[in-house]
Amino acid sequence: MKPLLHFMTRPVLFASFAFVFFTATGFAQRNSDDKPDYRKLHYLSEEEMLTPLKRDPNFTETDPPVGPVRMVGEFESMQAVLIRYPFGIPYTVISEMANDLQVITIVSSNSQANQVLTMYQQNGVNTANCSFLIAPTDSYWTRDYGPWFVFDGNNQPGICDFPYDRPRPTDDNIPVKVAQSLGINLFGMNLTHTGGNMMTDGFGFAASTDLVYEENTDLTEQEVKDKMEAYLGITQYDVTLDPLADYIKHIDCWGKYLAPDKILIGRVSITDDRYADYEAVADYFANTPSAYGYPYKVYRVFSPGTAPNTPYTNSIILNNKVLVPLTGSQWDDEAIAVYEEAMPGYEVIGMPWTQWFNTDALHCRAIGIADLDMLYIDHRPLFGTVDWQDSLAVSAKIIPYSEGQLVSDSLLVNYQVNNNAYQTARLVQTEGSTYVGYIKNFSELDTIHYFVSAMDDANKHAKLPYMGVADPFSFVVGEQVFTDLTITPDTLVFMDEYIRYFKILNATSSTVSIENISVDNLVWLPTLPDFPYALPAGDSLMVEVDVDIITQNPAFVWLYNTIFITSDISTQHVIVKVNSDLLETIENNTEKEIISVHPNPFSNEIVFELPSLKRSEAFLKIYDVFGKLIYSGRETVSDKLIWNAGSEKGSAVENGVYIYQLQIENELFTGKVVKLR
Asked: Which residues are within 8 A (CB) of 142 and not within 5 positions of it... i.e. 6 or more apart?
């Protein structure tokens, strides 16, 4: 359990509270002919209608959470669901919830908890997953007055409280009770609101009807949005008209986020007076970017509101289940089919009951309790057509709210190229909570499906998208577009060959003028064309590169140089990597004269003897083992040439191995010399 960090200063009406499990005692249900309790009606009672709605003057607003703040979305991991007794939902729903999730029931006393427990046992509810919150309430609409869960900038959980937009003080106090019971931070945002008119995606996007403005007339629209950002981390707040044209103006009566990029909107007949408003809202979201960067995928469900009722958007998502309220309408099957199409991988379960209403059904009467130790993945997906690269980076922020450690080999990008088998790539930490992996092994115009997955040492698992392989992200790799010459290979390695080639391909759409191809030593370019050389679009030029000598000794060092290709659109290069022992011996088709190099090793000077050559001009170059030119000199000689171990600048060279190239007319002599003290 997380430590208690902070409480807002607000009157607590009842101090006794607990999550407890009780033994059973007898209980009698209310008679069906009892008079209705207006406090249980989703709409306002006569007394409440006469009570002016204004923000609670006794509400003490706290400082907002340390930023950045993140409000939890309904489709994120939940540890429990909160309902209230007397019930607003049937036992069939409670039983379904309790099969694999903790059901917390708000009751007024210990004795009432015992009574409810007995009823659960009698109606087949899994009581091992049942617990109770002892607190007074006015109604069963836990969604409307229940807790809004957030994580602050230190990854600590909390609850954001707000003045409930009904004059029902004990309902309004439930977020305080839940925060105390969980031992987590409680924040107070002085903005009149209600959970039925608030949906968020967990990534900083949220939506409400303009009821939020009507109920906070002392604030400007910008001030409302500023509070939403400060306390809940909402950076994109879509405030819409209410197409339902019902006084309640709750967004969950006609719309619902199904995922960060999906929204369900009701639909009515074209002859319905509300048709234009419904279509306007649907068009708005269809053209508004979601948190993923592309417009929402809008799904429509026919909900005319005629009897039997059609409250299909008023469903509840609890982990991998979607519970949809049904009433026996002819449109029930179609509604289930829409959910199954929109939410592959989820178990979509219809929950029939005659007491679901068009503006008041399952979502209004239950609310999830966030898993405070959830594993959270934040990723903005690749989508549409992505510019071609030989590998594509996938970056994700992964936060274990359990404060445990991530399991490194579980951090994966899972991806599929076209319809082939899925591959995986490890996500590697780059900075803080950010991890990067790479999608590879694809070609242009391939379709890629992928999802991100992770696990921590508390055995918390997460995927994004939430259903993984059943509903992955997807994109198409764009065509390779060339705007420059392509050089292949980009490195020439001379191990035991003395001739290699590279190709210059003009893959652009225009003729390119090659101005020059140059290299200063180690290799020769014997077959170059005249420059400038016009290389037509789609054509190529093969360039021969010669070392002219072959190796005999496997012990060697690499010598490096660079060939530069200069054109009218760019300068590119080819790396030359030469085995130094290629410079040990010279092999030509014609017989070469033998020279004598001594002493070797040497200390002060070395002599190159040319016994049988006529007087001619000699050109001497000395390189270090990295291919750097140390000395060059040209002079006329008859029988010998002396190098005094000096550099180009005249200073003595360091001890070590050096490569010489001695050119006399058309003869090239090459070898190693060693300088010692």
From this structure: 82, 83, 84, 106, 174, 365, 366, 367
Paired strand residues for 451: 414
Model-level pTM?
0.71
pLDDT tens-digit map of 508-530? 889 999 999 998 777 888 889 99
The rounded distance, in Å, linking the Cα atoms of 279 and 283 is 6
> What pLDDT is stored for residue 576 in this prediction?
86
CATH architecture of 591-675: Sandwich (2.60)
Report the share of the chain in percent with pLDDT over 90: 66
By the 8 A CB rule, do 325 and 351 touch? yes
Residues with Cβ within 8 Å of residue 328, at least 6 apart in sequence: 308, 352, 354
**Total Cβ atoms within 10 A of residue 411:** 22
Query: Do the Cβ atoms of 264 and 324 come closer than 8 Å?
Result: no
Active site annotation includes 364: yes
The pairing of beta strand 130-134 with beta strand 148-151:
unpaired
Could you read off the pLDDT of 367-377 as tens digits, one per residue?
999 999 999 99
Q: Which of 130, 160, 253, 364 is catalytic?
A: 364
The answer to whether 19 and 131 have CB atoms below 8 angstroms apart is yes
Residue-by-residue DSSP string for 564-618: EEEESS-EEEEEEEEEGGGGS----SS-----EEESSSBSS-EEEE-TTPPSEEE
**pLDDT confidence bin for 26, thresholds 50/70/90:** very low
Q: Do 485-582 and 591-675 agree at the fold level?
A: yes
Q: CA 169 to CA 12: how far, in whole Å?
A: 10
Q: What is the CATH superfamily name and number for domain 376-477?
A: Immunoglobulins (2.60.40.10)
Residue 276 reports pLDDT greater than 70: yes
Pair of tokens at residue 532: 């400038």
CATH of span 485-582: 2.60.40.10
Specify whether domain 19-24+59-370 bears CATH 1.10.10.970. no
User: What distance in Å separates the CA atoms of residue 592 and residue 585, rounded to the nearest whole number?
Assistant: 11
- Compute the residue count for the chain: 677
- Could you identify the residue written with the tokens 């994966």? 412
Question: What is the rounded CA–CA span in Å between residue 67 and residue 69?
Answer: 5
Q: How far apart are CA 474 and CA 211, in angstroms?
A: 37
Q: Largest Cα–Cα distance of the chain, in whole Å?
A: 130
In terms of Cα–Cα distance, which of 329, 417, 14, 356 is closest to 176? 14
Distance from C-alpha of 240 to C-alpha of 253, rounded to nearest angstrom: 13
CB burial of residue 107 (10 Å; 0-12, 13-18, 19+): buried
